[in-house]
Amino acid sequence: MARLIGGIGTSHVPSIAAALDKGLRNTDEWKPFFDGYIPAQDWAAAAAPDIAVVIFNDHGNAFFLDRVPTLALGVAESYDPIDEGWGPRAVPSFQGAADFAWHLADQMVARHFDPLICRELQVDHGMQVPMELIFGRPAAWPVKVVPILVNTIQYPIPTPQRMWELGRVLRAAIESWPTDEKVVVLGTGGLSHQLQGARAGYINPAEDRKWIADIGPNPARYRDMTREDYVEVFGSEGAELIMWLVMRGAMDIQVKTLFRHYFAPASMTGAGMVLLENL
């Protein structure tokens, strides 16, 4: 059977992509952020996963507000970077793990999840940035990908409990996949931020740090919170953190936190990463 070798939670902030494109990685402003990902990059290079399942939200690029699926699953052979308004970025296209994706689709439906099945899909910074943070910018990506897109843009968004259960379904799909492939799950989004309304500019570094520290050893609080709790604590866009719960739900109850990193720049969002392995 295939094997889940690790789970990574990470931000997918679009300014990260801009910093990489502009060659700002080693500037005083950005170096502390990017250096915090070096342990995860080293881990990925040594662990050499075959498949990365990436949970993220589209940002009005592949789907707009007239048609927003609660869940979408990519089953394509490849995924190109989408043009977010400045032309497609100079990152390689992503090779899809199409056979496994179809297996996952079947397992999701069998367990009463109803994803939109995407045989063609372009992907925005929600997927591009996490892949770059973990795998760099190679000539070709070292893993095949399976994208799972979650609506965190237009209410009603899914519940945290539903996302946790999706993680359990993902784990079962991995363990029933009859290959020896190694799988890593990337739950993306957040951390705390709000881009509009009376709290525009809101971030909560104290709760961000607690999330980074506790999502591995003590996830029950976050699994049991309501959607409204996420908005109150982490901001309206910070509710993206429910996508980390898919990753965490796929892991064992007891896990080892290998690395964690948090960075709160003078900007609109906290950002960070956690890397987990099963015991």
Notable traits:
single chain, 279 residues, alpha/beta, Protocatechuate 4,5-dioxygenase, Chain B, 3-stranded mixed β-sheet
Care to describe what's here?
The chain has 279 residues and is of the alpha/beta class. The protein has a single domain (3-278), classed as LigB-like (Protocatechuate 4,5-dioxygenase, Chain B, 3-Layer(aba) Sandwich). The chain has ten helices and eleven strands. The protein has helices spanning 14-21, 31-35, 38-47, 98-110, 125-135, 160-175, 205-214, 220-224, 227-234, 242-250; strands spanning 3-10, 51-56, 71-74, 78-81, 94-95, 116-118, 122-123, 144-150, 182-188, 255-263, 271-278. The strands form two sheets. It has an eight-stranded mixed sheet with strand order 6-3-8-2-9-1-11-10, sandwiched between helices. Strands 5-4-7 form a three-stranded mixed sheet. Strand 10 (255-263) and strand 11 (271-278) form a beta hairpin. Helix 4 (98-110) crosses helix 6 (160-175) and helix 6 (160-175) packs parallel to helix 10. The protein is globular. The two termini are 18 Å apart.
Structural class: alpha/beta
CATH C-level category: Alpha Beta
Overall body shape: globular
Cα-atom radius of gyration: 17 Å
Q: For the largest beta sheet, what order do the strands appear in spatially? A: 6-3-8-2-9-1-11-10
Major β-sheet annotation: 8 strands, mixed
What string, H for helix and E for strand, traces the elements in order? EHHHEEEEHEEHEHEHHHHEE
Count of distinct strands: 11
- Helix share of residues? 25-40%
Count of alpha and pi helical runs: 10
- In the CATH hierarchy, the third-tier topology is known as Protocatechuate 4,5-dioxygenase, Chain B
So, the CATH homologous superfamily? LigB-like
- CATH architecture label: 3-Layer(aba) Sandwich
The figure for the number of domains is 1
Unreliable spans = none
Distance between the termini: 18 Å
Strand content: 15-25%
Please tell me the overall pLDDT: 95
